[in-house]
Amino acid sequence: MGIDVPSVQFLCCAKSIGVDFSDTMMVGRQVVDLTDTDVITSALSTIGIPREQIFAALQGKVEERAPAEPLFSLLGARQVLSVDASDYEGATYIHDFNQPLPAYLAGQFSVVHDGGTIEHVFNIPQAFKNCMEMLRVGGHFIQVNVANNYMGHGFWQFCPELIYRIFSRENGFQIKAVLMNVHVMHGGGASLGRWYKVEDPAKHHCRAELINHRPTYICTIAQRVEDKRIFATFPQQSDYVETWKRTQERRHEIDWKPTVFSIRRMIPRPVKKLIRWSLNAVSGPFDRPYYQRVSDQDVVLGRI
């Protein structure tokens, strides 16, 4: 786990849209990848953090990876704590996120940051629930996890459908941003990327899919707006909910007019795969209505 250049840019995005970092909990004690300090400094200075403060926080960090607490302090944190299943990285609290959250950690934090930890937790619904329960009302969950082309890195890769269904009003949350970062290499091997905003698949009545050849992050900012029982009802995939709804409607009315959805269902799966492959070859995997290209500058400044 670690905070690289795209992760720093996304943390700056969170700061720019008003996220309060005063009481920050890291899921897994994070470290900062300092192989491209100039880009990190540029992002932090863009949101108004004086360069002398940045240099002071990073001075003496000659190694390539340094503890992340000073970075969160630059973003406004008064206390930065951490929780992990093992004490080998010096986490503040030791707790296995496969298990329910201890009561003393519930509702305590203004930010819960997962920089690539819960993808390694087998009991993923419980891991998400624990992150959500640690937030007080008004607090924000910030996530940078793997989305595509990371098979074998952890137990899981995440998709927009999952994120939008989990951080819903039914669970007391409101999505502030869901972005994808597609890695490209920069300078001495540091990881940068191209940013894409991802809209809710339910809004477009289709699946937000991705077939590409580069490692890709999914990044989330979600705010806890109400103290609700999390997963009182388990999420359902939005396109299936739409299918069930239409099926119920057809039971009460006769409508033989073909719809786009019904025609799509009539197309054999191999043909669908061929169509998707052709579209990717011609237009690229992000040329879809649910993706929108966003510049690095707009991400850092929260113009999303």
Brief account:
The protein has about 300 residues and is α/β, with parallel strands linked by helices.
List the secondary-structure elements in sequence, H or E.
HEEHHEHEEEHEHEEHEHHHEH
CATH structural fold name of the largest domain: Rossmann fold
Mean pLDDT level: 89
Distance between the termini: 26 Å
Please identify, by name, the CATH architecture of the largest domain.
3-Layer(aba) Sandwich
**Number of separate structural domains:** 2
**Class by SSE composition:** alpha/beta
| CATH class wording of the largest domain | Alpha Beta
Spatial sequence of strands, sheet with the most strands: 5-4-1-6-7-10-8-9-11
Radius of gyration: 21 Å
Uncertain spans: none
- Coarse shape: globular
Helix content: 25-40%
Range of strand content: 15-25%
